[in-house]
Amino acid sequence: MKLNWGTGIVIAFIGFISFIMYFVINMNTDKKLDHDLVTEDYYKQELKYQNDIDKEKNAKTLSANLKWRKTEKGMLISFPENLEPSNISGKVFLYRPSNKQLDFETTISLSNHNLLIPDKRLLDGRWNIKIDWNYKGNNYLYKEEILY
């Protein structure tokens, strides 16, 4: 059986459309390719962004900023030594870009200058850490993308 050029073009179009439809359906149904927004109320957060900028500027005026390091027990966040730990309050938010279910938030309660986040709460990989804290009426913000 001999095919003419018109039949060949139709077969090529059908093959191309099938190829594209396969990828469209595959991308929409594959759960490992499902990515969520950083936050559900994105626009509301955007309106508060100037407050975050002011808090970050306040943090840069400190003699020493926050530091973190990985230890055997977990992530150890160190607050500046010249501040009184009992006057520090706030929240630590850890965001995992690859999995929304791993995100968590914890309050800051210090007896010394260190805060420990247990290793069992953190998987190895990329995290975004956001520490929104207050010391004697001054608000500070520390944000960083980390590899744990």
UniProtKB/TrEMBL annotation:
Query: What keywords were assigned to this record?
Result: Membrane, Transmembrane, Transmembrane helix
Checking InterPro entries in the record gives: FixH (IPR008620)
Q: Which spans are transmembrane here?
A: 6-25
Q: What is this protein called?
A: Cytochrome C oxidase Cbb3
